Amino acid sequence: MFGLSVATLAGYLAAIVVLMVTPGPDMMFVLANAARYGTRAGLVAALGVAAGEAVHVAAVVFGLAAAISASPVLFTAIRWAGAAYLIVLGVRALCGSSGPGATAPGHDGRAERAFLRGLVTNLLNPKMILFSVAFLPQFVEPAAGNVTAQLVLLGGLFVAVQLTVDIALGAGAGRLAGRLADGRWSRQINRICAVAFVALGLRLAAG
């Protein structure tokens, strides 16, 4: 397909499967949303994260990501913005979990915002920009034909695998949270998710 050899495609798919099953910020974000708001929020968050990665892939194809990664000031600004966004989400979740009206998974209108949260979180992760710039071109075969078409194919496969893994994890976490959705467990889940958001923000801020 697009001139890429079967061996290259097989090696690429194996590499991204390993990457996707390794815990990272996107995976933890999907799990936290599913645990706090239920299965639907986990699935929608997975779609948002995948949409963000699709934007990164498009940036690589059109050369924008290389320009961003070459600017230390812009890179740092994006990193701090992403960290601040995650920490704010965590603080809000923590405040919302302490009162008697803390929401059980699956019954909060804010679950509808999971797509936007996933999209913004992924877009504000500069490591994904650098990763896309460094990873995707390694599997391009210039002698095999249209390089742009190859990047689109490789990026599309990356997003598809990421979406598949995150949807499976989000569905599983959402079902488990639903079974523990009595008042006591609901508050504990909310606190754990709040801590997870803050930890992700601090991790991103630390570089």
Rg on CA atoms, Å: 18 Å
Counted up, domains total 1
Total helical segments: 9
Order of helices and strands: HHHHHHHHH
Class inferred from helices and paired strands: mainly alpha
User: Oligomeric state of the chains?
Assistant: single chain
Note poorly predicted spans: 98-109
Number of E strands: 0
Mean pLDDT: 75
Strand content: under 5%
Main sheet summary: none
**What would the principal axes of the Cα set say about the shape?**
globular
Instruction: For the record, give the distance between the C-alpha atoms at the N and C termini, rounded to a whole number.
Output: 37 Å
Q: Which percent bin holds the helix content?
A: over 70%
Describe the protein in words.
This protein has 207 residues and is an all-alpha fold. The protein has one domain (6-205). Helices cover 77% and strands 0% of the residues. The chain contains 9 helices and no strands. The chain has helices at residues 6-21, 25-37, 39-61, 64-69, 72-96, 114-123, 126-135, 147-179, 183-205. The longest helix has 33 residues, at 147-179. The protein is globular, with a radius of gyration of 18 Å. The model is unreliable at 98-109 (pLDDT under 50).
